[in-house]
Amino acid sequence: MTQKPVRLLVCKMAVPTIIAMVTTALYNVVDAAFIGRLSTEGTAGIGVAFAYMTFIQALGFFFGHGSGNYISRALGAKDRSSASVVATVGFITPLLIGLAAALLGIFNLSALSRLLGSPPDVVPYANDYLRYIVLATPFMMSALTLNNQLRLQGNARFGMVGIVSGALLNIVLDPIFIFTLDMGVSGASLATAVSQLCSWVLLLYGTFKPESVHISLRNFKPSFRVYYEILRGGLPSLFRQVFNCFAAVLLNYSAALYAAPGQAASAVAAFAVVTRIMMFAFSVVLGFCQGFQPVCGFNFGAKKYDRVRESWLFATWVGTSFLLVISLVGFLFAPQIVALFRAEDPVLVEIGAATLRWQCAAFPLVGLFTATGMLFQNIRMTGPATLLSITRNGLFFLPALLLLPLSLGMTGVQMAQAVADALTFLLAVPYAVWIDRKLRRGMK
Predict the structure, then answer these.
(1) What span, in angstroms and rounded, lies between the C-alpha atoms of 366 and 364?
(2) pLDDT in tens, 303-318
(3) pTM exceeds 0.70
(4) 178: which DSSP letter?
(5) For residue 382, with 0-12 CB atoms within 10 Å meaning exposed, 13-18 middle and 19 or more buried, which class applies?
(6) Do residues 290 and 318 touch, judged by C-beta distance below 8 A?
(7) Which of 114, 135, 142, 269 is found 20 to 30 A from 85 (Cα to Cα)?
(8) Mean pLDDT value of segment 247-268
(9) DSSP conformation letters of 236-299
(10) What angle do CA 96, 101, 104 make, to 5 degrees?
(11) pLDDT-above-70 percentage for the chain
(12) Is the CB of residue 181 less than 8 Å from the CB of residue 235?
């Protein structure tokens, strides 16, 4: 980690994380495509359920990044004992929290669907999709933690195996449960729950590999110090994902509110489709940036700041270049791309194509602030990392989503994400210049 050429090392670490992220995003796309063959309301239902999944991700990434960032620095400093304690506490805590959330949610499905922004005619479909997702909450939450722990200690390949195996199983089970067993929307949910449980088993097995930091009940020693370390490393991820959750809920409400009469389900479904398309494209950039994180953490722990800077700049350049190409394709072929999910609904295609074009207009800007935020998170600059993590879908997106539609109607809802991306980029530039100077000066 501290000796090999940085760019080669980042690419080596990034390949398994990109595969894992892309495969995970792919099964979300496949879910939407299969459900789109059934009905518009079903597609809207999985859009509503997405908000709950962002809640799962919020805590999974918080504990995963918080404990994983500490683990990478501890291993760089040759402190394996502390790494094992933090890994165990970081894994068991979200498992317990997820169990509590599952028990609460399963008895209040309709209330949960309405809370997440479901229009009345979509509630039954949202319930069908949420049912098995809610039951699988403890395993989904702790699987995200395990994946990030394995990745940040340099064992990204096994983390990839666990995530990809579950995602591929989900893609195989989807048509069986949805069509062959005639389970409809519930079939897609059950396929996701079963696949996530399999991923959890494989990832947990990966922690017992000789090169991995082991999870052991005797190392479950929760303390203020351990949770403080997890908080410092995971707070940016927590804020980012919590705002993602609020953004998803508010987007559902706004899409239904500003849709033409009788078109609420089509509008919610359109945004659900575009969200999955953008997630799929962004998963490549996120995977590459996650590949640079263990390189950054190990070298920062070893005080090799020149290598930290080189890995960050390389991740920024690759991410931005990829997004430029993807955005051009998405802008030019937006109607055709959206129609792949539900061509039978022209309203959905019209709203979705316009939304996709707006988001593609600012999408290349995402590369800089994504890599920069991850850099700050890994080098324990919690303040800037947290600020950058909450702006895109929080400090900028939420106000844009509330204010722009007041004068622009549905167009304001469609352009809110692009406005938030542009403002986040402008905020990130001075931070990027500042940290670049510090790294070139050896962090003095």
Answers:
(1) 5
(2) 888 899 999 999 999 9
(3) yes
(4) I
(5) middle
(6) no
(7) 135
(8) 94
(9) HHHHHHHHHHHHHHHHHHHHHHSSPTT-HHHHHHHHHHHHHHHHHHHHHHHHHHHHHHHHHHHH
(10) 130
(11) 99
(12) no
